[in-house]
Amino acid sequence: MDVVLNFILSHISSFDQSVLLFVNRTMRSAYLDKIMPLITKLGDAGIFWIALALILLIPKKTRRTGAAMGVAMLIGLIIGNGILKNVIARTRPFDISHPVLPKNRLLIDPPTDYSFPSGHTLASFEAATAIYKDHTVYGFAAFVLALLIAFSRIYLQVHYPSDVIGGAILGFLFGMLGSTIVRSVRDSWAARKERKNAEKTDEEKASEDSSK
Known about the structure:
Elements (H helix, E strand, L loop, with lengths): L1 H25 L3 H12 L5 H10 L6 H26 L30 H16 L1 H20 L5 H51 L1
């Protein structure tokens, strides 16, 4: 079992290093060096997605979407950032012995927490999935932004590609779960309200019959 695990981990590590090296050597440009830090800021602490969820909670027709985003991101915060990051405790790419890009050459302040999964990617895909479940067109646009934020983490060399892939998969799953929970609660509440209305109607009819 240990042999198989070491084999898998070594191949993941090789893949990560190859992609980081490729991005650093072939995709770096003065333009992207300016734009990528701005894109990644949209995912800082999930602020953009949290703000969007709060806005969507205001109109009744988008309230379910906003609630699903909030539930999904809360699940991700607990499981992804709270548990997985600290249990796996993966070192950031710039903190290894032979980094592709040393810490002193990063374009943004180096994050101080662990690397897996990518929190920016996790929150982005949770939100995008929740939006897509209710609004396909807007959800597609949200996925495009989520992908840009995810790529920015690799471009800036603060995450391994596998951190981002893991964050995207978990984000999709948590987004689906958040949407399912909110739909279930809302349907349960609607059914309960309908039963109460039906009981009230039956009581009114009974009252009318007894008064005749």
